[in-house]
Every structure is written in C-alpha cells, then in structure tokens.
Amino acid sequence: MEHYRPAPGTPIRDLDTPCLLIDLEAMEHNFQHIADTYRDTVCKMRPHVKNLKSPLLAHLQMQAGGTVGGVCAAKVAEAEVMVEGGITDVLIANQVVARDKLVRLCALAKRAAMKVGIDHADNLRTLSEVAQAQGVTIGVLIEVDTSMHRAGIRRVEDSVALATLAAALPGIAFRGIMSHQTLPGRPDKQTRLIEGRHYMQRCLDIKEAIEAAGVPVDIVSTGETWTYDVAADLPGITEVQGGTYALMSAAYDYMDEFIIAAKILGTIISTPRPGVAIGDVGVHALASPGGVLPSVVDMPGVTVEALHDAHIVLRTDGTTPLRVGQQFLLHSGQQDILVNRWDQYIAVRHGVVEAVWDIPARGCHH
Taking the CA atoms of the chain, what radius of gyration do you get in angstroms? Predict the structure, then answer.
C-alpha cells in the first residue's frame, strides 16, 4: 500500500480511503482485559505478533501487563523485526530448518532470549551445530500436534526421545513444549472449556512423560485467543500464544469480552442500481480467506455481496440508503492477513486521528 500519513487531529470523515484503522479504545480494552485475566495467575500471555506485526503494539500489551515479557512470532523475519524493535524474549512458534535462517536465528540470540519450536532430531542437531559455531544457546520447545494435523510430535515416546536429545546437545537449552489448536464455528464457553482442556491436557501428559524421563520442563506454551481463559485456570500451563484478541476479527466476535479494533474504512464510489453500491475496498485491502466476506459496521440492512480486487459490492434492504461519497467501515474475518496488507495503522480515538504507526513486520515471509 502507498504510504498515507494523515496528521493527528484529522477527523475520520476527512481520511483518504481505503485505510486501516485501529480503534484505540477497543484495543486498550482488549489489552487491559488480558492484563486483568493474568494478573494473579501463573499462566501469562505471550502475544503472537503474526497478528500485530508491530513491536510498538507488542510493547503496549506488555506495558499493560499480563504477559511473559516477550512475544512469539511465526518466522525468523518477524522475530528480527521484533528484536530490532527492542523486544528481548522471542519464541518462533514454528520449525526453522534452512541453514541460513538458523544462522539468522542464532545471530538474534546475541541480543535476545531466543526460543524455537522443534519436532525432528535432524533439525535439532543442525541447530546445535549452528548455535555452537555462533557461540550462543538457543532454547527449544517440542511442538505437539494436538489438532492442526500439520507440524508437531504425535507420539509421547517421540517427544521423550527428542527432549532427551535436546537436553544433551551443546548450544541447546531444552525449555519445554508448545502446541496450537483450532476450533471451528462459533463455540459457546462450555464447548471452549471442554475442547480446550482436552487439547491442552495432551501437552500436560507429554510434560509429565518428559519429566519422568529426568528432563525438566519449564514452559508449556499452548492455547490461543479462544482458550485464553481456559488456559489461565489449568495448572501446568505457563503461557498462552494469543494473537487475535488484540485487534480481533469478525470470526471471533462470539467472544464478546473483546472488541474488534481493526477496521477498514472505505468510500462508496458508485450506485449503479437501486439497493446496490460499489466501494473502493477490495481484496488488496483486506482478506477474504475461504471466501468469507467482511461484515459492514453499524449500517443496518447493508451486507457485502461480493469482493473484487479493488472493489466491494454492497447491498441494502432499504433500511440504510447508500449514496456516493458515503463512508463505511468493515470488519474482516481474518485479522493477520488483513494487517499484512498494510504499511501503517491509523490510530483513532473518538473519531479523530491520534497517531499513525508503521507495521514493520508486514510482508515478512522469508
């Protein structure tokens, strides 16, 4: 996206569109809810910056409280941005395999406490070699496949063998285990409780098996936004890898303790026929994963009919008239892909721009 930096004090009605807004009151509410949730618990939040892509926002959550004092990232490139932004505790919640990326990971360990997920002995041995050559120690957490059916250990005996190897290798500090899980649909709290406990108990069972083999487990890093409260009450879980809660998305709006803070502002540019309007927002500006369309905010009777590269088709049942030049707000169904479309957040409070913040980790695919 082109760099667009409106001056503080600019009213929303005067903003060029499309643009990515952060509702500061909503974001601060979400950060404070996390701080309150984890104030007196052993378990803490480890904000996942694949959703924020901004060291500044990560620092704001850490200042609010309730965190481990660090973050998790999806990639070495994201971790580099976070360390450059002054964050000194980073878990890369994926496997890092290519040697050049391992070298970059170890270079970061000279400036921050770096940890990474593992699930294979060969990868672990290579990491040990690179860490020794760089003169650093890298923390490792065994990823456990609880529900995603992608990376991660599937058998208890494999986790014990990998933990034992990690504890013996130079340049490696075995720290614990991690997992990620998902829950489709719009589950109620009881369903979240039952399913979340089921998945996280698998991590705790593996923790017990590893400790029975004589290897200490310091960290059990699991959960996400939909299990943030479940994990807080489950003994043995030390941290939650939550990301969506910070800015939220329409897919998680069943969790009404959080408020959607990230929104796309657009403008109607055409009304080609009665009840239909065309806006200046398309998939270049927000995500539509799996064909899930965004929702229109505070415009009763207005729905999204279609989303094209640079345009959106809105339809109204007549409750809310649509006119050329009228602004509208959208909630995306996918937050981290949405944020990755943009170079900056426009932070607004009470309908007025308060700040413009860069998003330095957007596009960090490599």
Answer: 22
**90 and 69 Cβ atoms separated by less than 8 Å:** no
Reduced to 3 states, what is the DSSP secondary structure of residue 71? strand
With beta carbons less than 8 A apart as the criterion, state whether 88 and 112 touch.
yes
How far from 98 is each of 94, 124, 298, CA to CA, in Å? 12, 12, 47
Which of 360, 356, 364, 363 has the alpha carbon at shortest distance from 21?
356
Does residue 131 contact residue 171 with C-beta atoms inside 8 Å?
yes
Q: In terms of Cα–Cα distance, which of 119, 219, 205, 114 is closest to 162?
A: 119
Tell me the CA distances in angstroms from 143 to 153, 172, 180, one per residue in order: 6, 16, 8
Angle at 271 between CA 270 and CA 277, to 5 degrees: 90
Domain spans in the chain, listed from the N-terminal domain onward: 12-21+257-358, 24-248
Percent of the chain with pLDDT over 90: 86
**Phi/psi at 176 (5° precision):** 160, -145
Separation between Cα atoms, residue 77 and residue 71, nearest integer Å: 14
Give residue 298's region: left, alpha or beta (phi > 0; psi -120 to 50): left
d(CA 366, CA 361): 11
Strand 262-273 to strand 239-240: parallel, antiparallel, or no bridges (unpaired)? unpaired
Q: Which helix (H) or strand (E) holds 135?
A: none
**CATH (residue range 24-248):** 3.20.20.10
Report the pLDDT averaged over residues 36-63: 97
d(CA 171, CA 270): 61
Cα–Cα distance, 156 to 125 (Å, whole number): 20
pTM for this model (two decimals): 0.95
Helices 121-134 and 99-108 cross at an angle (nearest 10°) of 50
pLDDT value of position 1: 45
In this structure, what token pair is assigned to residue 133? 């050559």
Kindly state the average pLDDT of the residues 245-252. 91
CATH fold of 12-21+257-358: Lyase, Ornithine Decarboxylase; Chain A, domain 1 (2.40.37)
Q: Are the C-beta atoms of 337 and 74 separated by less than 8 Å? A: no
**Amino acid identity for residue 312 in this structure:** I
